[in-house]
Design brief:
By secondary structure, the protein is mainly alpha-helical. Helices cover 65% and strands 0% of the residues.
């Protein structure tokens, strides 16, 4: 997504994420995680014809979802809320760039997920080490 997310700079992605993060509550977790598989399947169907790095976006979303769902992995609420905010943004069909716009509709989603990955880099590394052990 790196080359395609330059349309949205890091500051814009951060603002979009912070706006979503401020509205995330603990009770949103189950709903967000329940809706992710449906949205990722729909996006995966588009991956074969898209020039965007949709496959990478899907891998990143899967990683974040797995990290949240893994009850054996200790994740602080603040980190979980940031990840959930990014996933919730991904679920919004009418975000900064509406998802129904062919080829470019997921650029903002990729930028927001990239911001989440940067913010949670140490947690993601810790999760990767946890999975390997």
């Amino acid at each position: 997504m790196a080359q395609n997310t330059t349309i949205l700079n890091d500051d814009t992605a951060q603002i979009l994420l912070e706006k979503q993060h401020s509205s995330i509550k603990r009770e949103d977790e189950a709903r967000i995680l329940q809706e992710i598989p449906h949205k990722t399947r729909a996006l995966a169907a588009k991956a074969a014809t898209s020039r965007l790095s949709i496959r990478r976006l899907l891998r990143e979303i899967k990683l974040l979802s797995e990290m949240i769902r893994n009850r054996n992995f200790s994740l602080q609420w603040k980190s979980k809320a940031i990840a959930l905010a990014g996933l919730a943004y991904f679920l919004l069909p009418t975000d900064a760039i509406p998802d129904f716009i062919p080829f470019v509709g997921y650029i903002d989603d990729g930028a927001v997920i990239a911001a989440v990955l940067r913010m949670l880099a140490s947690e993601i590394e810790r999760y990767s080490n946890f999975k390997q052990s």
